[in-house]
């Protein structure tokens, strides 16, 4: 462990936030995935001409209307994974959602089963609800040797952290790490609509490193698991086919294989 901390060899990022204009790539992504019409896409290209998605000039009404049309059409798409249902509306704030949670919690002792329990898992977020129930269970905490009263309620995603974001563009840090000789693996689930693989490719291109291994499929068990290319700064970019924003959650076997190959300094 000391060697890893004192002599790091590289870093890995999955579907990372790096530049503030990542939203600008949502419309090209949506068009490529068949979520918006050709006409809307062409109108957006003509009227917006690279204008920032988040800061449209007030006088550019046509661009504004195109972006609003895009938002309306895609508003009920799950940004974490475009093929999965959008379940946030059926959260615990609704009676129906609360009843569903109650059923899940009653069945939570059956987590290890593969039959009836999985049949009531309507959404991926159902498992998130159960993870909090599990982690806050006293018997679980005892098994994990958590000292009673030492910590409060565990939350999967907490918004309680008090911080101020002072850096909005991370590309200078990547340039610095590349200059110091660090290897890097940047991967993107190709069905992530929040931080699209297109936006990731764009900031990587902005680093202006030459490509030494062209775009090619990488395989797991003789099946295409994604596509990859390598740059002269020892950076490898890879997509994970069929994965969403948290790629290992959707494609664990493929991501494990990808990581093991990269750590072993082997081609994906």
TrEMBL record:
<comment type="similarity">
    <text>Belongs to the peptidase S10 family.</text>
</comment>
<dbReference type="GO" id="GO:0006508">
    <property type="term" value="P:proteolysis"/>
</dbReference>
<dbReference type="Pfam" id="PF00450">
    <property type="entry name" value="Peptidase_S10"/>
</dbReference>
<protein>
    <submittedName>
        <fullName>Uncharacterized protein</fullName>
    </submittedName>
</protein>
<dbReference type="GO" id="GO:0016747">
    <property type="term" value="F:acyltransferase activity, transferring groups other than amino-acyl groups"/>
</dbReference>
<dbReference type="InterPro" id="IPR029058">
    <property type="entry name" value="AB_hydrolase_fold"/>
</dbReference>
<dbReference type="GO" id="GO:0019748">
    <property type="term" value="P:secondary metabolic process"/>
</dbReference>
<dbReference type="InterPro" id="IPR001563">
    <property type="entry name" value="Peptidase_S10"/>
</dbReference>
<keyword id="KW-0732">Signal</keyword>
<dbReference type="GO" id="GO:0004185">
    <property type="term" value="F:serine-type carboxypeptidase activity"/>
</dbReference>
<keyword id="KW-0325">Glycoprotein</keyword>
């Amino acid at each position: 462990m000391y060697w890893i901390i004192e002599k790091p060899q590289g870093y890995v990022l999955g579907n990372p936030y790096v530049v503030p204009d990542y939203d600008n790539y949502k419309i090209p992504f949506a068009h490529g995935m068949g979520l918006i019409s050709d006409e809307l896409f062409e109108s957006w290209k003509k009227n917006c001409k690279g204008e920032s998605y988040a800061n449209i000039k007030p006088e550019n009404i046509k661009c504004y209307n195109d972006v609003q049309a895009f938002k309306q059409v895609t508003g009920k798409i799950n940004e974490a994974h475009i093929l999965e249902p959008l379940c946030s509306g059926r959260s615990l704030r609704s009676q129906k959602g609360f009843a569903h949670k109650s059923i899940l919690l009653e069945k939570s002792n059956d987590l290890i089963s593969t039959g009836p329990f999985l049949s009531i898992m309507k959404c991926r977020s159902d498992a998130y609800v159960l993870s909090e129930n599990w982690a806050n269970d006293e018997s679980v905490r005892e098994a994990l040797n958590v000292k009673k009263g030492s910590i409060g309620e565990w939350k999967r995603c907490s918004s309680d952290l008090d911080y101020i974001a002072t850096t909005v563009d991370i590309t200078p840090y990547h340039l610095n790490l590349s200059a110091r000789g660090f290897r890097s693996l940047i991967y993107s689930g190709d069905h992530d609509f929040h931080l699209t693989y297109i936006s990731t490719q764009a900031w990587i291109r902005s680093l202006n490193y030459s490509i030494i291994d062209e775009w090619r499929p990488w395989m797991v068990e003789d099946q295409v698991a994604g596509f990859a290319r390598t740059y002269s700064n020892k950076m490898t970019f890879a997509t994970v086919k069929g994965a969403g924003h948290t790629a290992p959650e959707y494609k664990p076997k493929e991501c494990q294989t990808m990581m093991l190959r990269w750590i072993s300094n082997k081609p994906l």
